[in-house]
Automatic annotation (TrEMBL):
Domain STAS, residue spans: 31-119
Name of protein: Phospholipid transport system transporter-binding protein
InterPro entries: MlaB-like_STAS (IPR058548), MlaB_ABC_Transporter (IPR052746), STAS_dom (IPR002645), STAS_dom_sf (IPR036513)
SUPFAM superfamilies the UniProt entry points to: SpoIIaa-like
Organism: Cocleimonas flava
Length: 119
């Protein structure tokens, strides 16, 4: 019974580690995203990205690029983040662009028929 509890604790610990690996930071022309855009990291990435975007909106930038070159994995929660970032840019009259989207993300975007939305 103790070994099962330890296994459960270990699993939860590794999930938390993957959350810390996921990051969004400001770059010269927008934001750089690293790590996994997945359910376990979505909430913290959304919170941080909204703070960063709000501060960038004050700088009078007209467009925001989201560089996904270091995204390692993405799931439906990650796709929802992309849609939310696009929506936030639209609401603030800023152009939105994605660069270096991994093939896995492109496949999900096509599956959900979001190609036009995320252009």
């Amino acid at each position: 019974m103790n070994s099962q509890n330890n296994r459960s604790i270990d699993t939860k610990s590794s999930e938390k580690v993957s959350e810390k690996v996921s990051e969004i930071v400001s770059s010269d022309n927008g934001f750089k995203i690293t790590g996994a855009l997945v359910y376990s990291s979505a909430s913290s990435l959304l919170e941080k990205s909204m703070r960063l975007m709000k501060s960038q909106f004050k700088n009078e930038a007209t467009s925001f690029n989201f560089d996904c070159s270091e995204v390692t994995r993405i799931d439906s929660a990650g796709i929802a983040l992309l849609v939310e970032w696009k929506r936030t840019c639209d609401q603030n009259n800023k152009q939105f662009s994605l660069t270096n989207l991994p093939d896995q993300a492109k496949s999900l975007v096509e599956t959900y028929r979001l190609e036009k939305l995320l252009q």
